[in-house]
Write a structure and sequence with these properties.
The chain has 368 residues and is an alpha+beta fold. It is built from 3 helices and 24 strands.
Length: 368
């Protein structure tokens, strides 16, 4: 009887000891994050952004003025002074350079003297014409004498007119000795120096007008037939967050013999003061009226037998599998036309090892 009681007591002690150890281990696992507690996996995600579909191509562009002219003196002579430097902004009518005008002033004085002499001769001829007319009316002179006086008066009028025009031309030539800007612009090149002798019309100052600015691009011949029907946007290198609408204005009819590219000029109707001449920019062209698509890496795409899908991380960091419509496969990327919304975070790495409803820790950078 004593033996039975002792064995029974021994079994009860073993059970009680096992239960106590299990409770202690369980408490330690919860407090210290033991093996019973799962950690959410970290996944690499990318935000979805839709953009017009189709092939977009970018080219290096330079900002130029639509009208850039080489201005020169309208009279020849020796350069007295150059009043501007390359890169300087000028206003319409501002002097750019001057020619030594000593000879021009002498010509003006000569024309003034000839005008004064012609005026004196004209006054005398008109008086003789009036006197001959009076004598003819009284019968005291012949018709031939009157005709000679009348012809002399007419000749005097012609000489006086010629003298007045000579004065005007001399005054213009004297004014042309100062080269003036014909519009607001920027001096892009200078070809004259003081002491240089130039001919009339020889290039002296190159002036780019500020009224209209455009982008100049060298296009490969594969885009010549398409660019007329494509949309274009310009982004300045100095302002990557701002873009400007660009419109094709001119396309060269022949390729450059060296580069075999076609020069294209795009007008910038929305250009502001931040778009300066000579700036570098990127011109992006894309087909018009194209369907908006989103691009994602091929590694983000998953197919579980029901079509293509993407893992989307919801606001509570849990996964949702959303079917998507694939428009095109392009190298290492895929174009998505529908199925996910703008700004959705999709898993782009390790998509085959995830499950719906699983809680994850999204990140946009790989950690090593």
């Amino acid at each position: 009887m004593f033996t039975l009681r002792a064995s029974h007591f021994s079994n009860l002690a073993r059970i009680s000891l096992a239960m106590s150890l299990g409770a202690a281990l369980a408490g330690c696992g919860k407090a210290n994050g033991g093996p019973g507690e799962l950690v959410a996996p970290r996944v690499l995600v990318q935000e979805i952004h839709y953009a017009p579909a189709g092939d977009t191509h970018s080219f290096i562009a330079a900002i130029r003025s639509r009208i850039e002219t080489d201005q020169g003196f309208r009279v020849g002579g020796k350069i007295a002074t150059r009043l501007v430097e390359t890169g300087q902004r000028v206003t319409a009518g501002q002097p750019l350079g001057k020619i030594d005008d000593v000879d021009l002033r002498l010509q003006k004085q000569q024309a003034d003297a000839e005008l004064a002499a012609s005026k004196t001769a004209l006054d005398q001829a008109l008086a003789d014409d009036r006197r001959a007319a009076e004598l003819l009316a009284k019968g005291w002179t012949t018709q031939a004498a009157y005709d000679r006086a009348h012809a002399a008066a007419a000749e005097a009028r012609g000489r006086n007119l010629r003298a007045r025009r000579a004065v005007e031309l001399a005054a213009n030539s004297l004014d042309y000795a100062t080269l003036r800007a014909d519009a607001d612009g920027v001096v892009t090149a200078t070809f004259i120096e003081a002491g240089q002798v130039v001919a009339a019309g020889q290039q002296a100052i190159r002036l780019a007008r500020l009224a209209e600015k455009e982008a100049v691009v060298a296009l490969p011949e594969t885009f010549v037939g398409q660019v007329r029907n494509w949309d274009a946007r310009l982004t300045l290198w100095s302002q990557p967050g701002r873009s400007y609408r660009a419109m094709l204005r001119e396309l060269a009819p022949a390729a450059d013999p060296v580069t075999r590219t076609f020069e294209a000029r795009f007008s910038l109707p929305d250009a502001d003061d931040k778009v300066d001449l000579g700036m570098s920019a990127t011109l992006t062209i894309a087909p018009r009226k194209s369907e908006p698509v989103a691009r994602a890496p091929l590694s983000a795409l998953i197919d579980q037998g029901r079509g293509s899908a993407l893992w989307v991380v919801a606001s509570d960091d849990r996964l949702e599998l959303k079917p998507v419509a694939v428009r095109r496969y392009d190298g290492r990327d895929v174009e998505i036309s529908s199925g996910v919304a703008e700004g959705d975070k999709v898993v782009i790495l390790g998509a085959q090892k995830l499950e719906a409803g699983e809680k994850v820790r999204p990140t946009t950078q790989l950690a090593f």
